[in-house]
Write a structure and sequence with these properties.
single chain; 451 residues; alpha/beta; 8-stranded mixed beta sheet; 7-stranded mixed beta sheet; 22% helix; globular
Length: 451
């Protein structure tokens, strides 16, 4: 078997997050976006002595359990790769994957609790970053999600099913507006163009909506026209903020060098477990609000009694976990690198009348050296790639009774856990929460205690 060979194989298993595997000509073959039970045709893109990677060309036969996708964009869009999998099977796949990943490194017994399903299977996301672009080279302007397996092409996801009708209406009206005034999108190869991203947030409980258009500085926006357009859309929720951000960097990310609020103020309010949280354009907040309530309830249950205990909430975002744990704790200190998120976290402390919480802006690696308190409990909710290797030992050296590690990427959790095990901690409980139905992603909560 060599590069560019076309092969036909039956998929036997699935590696996290979405790579189907099989054996062919005494090699392990990995093919992205395939499912166990499918028969597929694929093109070999890399061949080694004992393994090979191939790119899916077509599914020749579906797996016996597959069903018709409910979203019209499924076969083009790269967002929801599990849509043809019944939800019960999605949960089984995720649970099995996480258990297999952790069992590669955990030799002592631990309690692996059943996965918790998302309260909503569709229309669950409270945030989307839609991209401007074209679906075919030099084609008309579109607004939506990246095409499956494509860096450049965008699919016009006007019927996206993981957000509610307000998101879809906002997308359609804004795309129609820019099609009518001939604005260009930003080309990643030439770095020329104006329109980049449309960031939309909507709170599940309050229905408040935030809209932030992200462009380059290469043209101008008719601000009044843009605001009037949005305020005249018939929406179920209420628009609380319209903003225009300018980002001239080359990174393919929804960021801002400068931001101007055109209407309202840069925040919406969400409610979780009886507390209120102000969320701004670029602050981190779990994208599934009802799922987040499940997640944080489990964290609270895992920790148990927090009376008279000091808690560090590291990688704290807008301070949701820390504030949910704060009412019974002695003190909560959070650290988060995104200054805007920290500003909102401290606003939320006042909003919830909490007097024992403080959130600090900065890199965990550096700021943890400045803390004088001794924590009884440390909660970790790091980015997808896990904890910085230089920070992990500093964190462990505080020697708390309990660590809670919340991971959105189980392979990163697997990489970090050995350091905790080597320092005298034992994994006692693990539970997954499905925060991302129809996709391969899952949140994992891991409770560690001192041996």
């Amino acid at each position: 078997m060599k590069k560019n060979d076309i092969i036909e194989v039956a998929i036997n298993d699935l590696e996290f997050p979405n790579k189907g595997t099989t054996n062919f000509e005494n090699k392990k073959i990995r093919i992205k976006n395939t499912l166990p039970g499918q028969k597929v045709r694929a093109k070999v893109v890399r061949s080694r002595k004992e393994s090979a990677d191939a790119r899916l060309i077509e599914v020749i036969e579906n797996a016996y359990y597959e069903k018709e996708p409910f979203c019209e964009h499924f076969y083009l869009c790269g967002g929801c790769t599990y849509q043809t999998v019944p939800y019960k099977n999605q949960l089984e796949i995720k649970e099995k994957q996480v258990k297999n990943i952790l069992d590669e490194i955990l030799t002592e017994n631990y309690e692996f609790l059943p996965i918790v399903p998302s309260p909503k299977k569709t229309e669950y996301r409270n945030k989307m970053e839609f991209s401007f672009g074209d679906e075919i080279k030099d084609g008309p302007l579109v607004l939506g999600m990246h095409k499956r397996n494509s860096f450049h092409s965008i699919v016009n996801t006007h019927g996206c099913e993981i957000v509610d009708e307000d998101f879809r209406r906002i997308l359609c009206h804004i795309l129609e507006y820019f099609l009518g005034n001939s604005q260009t999108y930003y080309h990643k190869t030439t770095n020329i163009g104006f329109l980049r991203y449309l960031l939309v947030r909507k709170a599940e409980k309050t229905g408040e909506i935030l809209i932030n258009l992200i462009t380059t500085s290469q043209s101008t926006l008719n601000e009044k026209e843009f605001v009037d357009l949005i305020l005249n859309i018939d929406l179920q929720g209420k628009v609380k903020c319209i903003a225009h951000s300018i980002f001239d960097g080359v990174a393919d990310a929804a960021k801002a060098d400068t931001m101007k609020v055109l209407y309202g103020e840069d925040r919406i309010t969400e409610e979780l477990l009886g507390l209120k949280f102000n969320i701004s354009s670029f602050s981190f907040f779990q994208t599934n609000s009802l799922g987040a309530e499940k997640l944080y309830s489990i964290v609270r249950d895992f920790i148990g009694n927090t009376k008279d205990k000091v808690i560090f909430d590291l990688y704290s975002g807008t301070g949701t976990i820390g504030q949910i744990l704060a009412p019974a704790a002695k003190k909560v200190i959070g650290i988060e690198i995104v200054e805007e998120a920290v500003k909102k976290a401290n606003e939320n402390v006042k909003l919830n009348n909490l007097t024992n919480c403080i959130f600090i802006a900065g890199d965990v690696l550096k700021k943890i050296d400045e803390l004088n308190d001794k924590p009884d409990i440390i909660v970790l909710d790091p980015p997808r790639e896990g904890i910085h290797p230089k920070a992990i030992q500093k964190i462990i050296d505080y020697k708390p009774e309990t660590f809670i590690y919340i991971s959105c990427k189980p392979t990163s959790l697997k990489n970090d856990l050995p350091v905790f095990l080597d320092n005298g901690y034992k994994v006692s409980k693990v539970q997954c929460v499905d925060m991302f139905p129809q996709t391969p992603h899952v949140e994992t909560i891991c409770l560690m205690s001192k041996k």
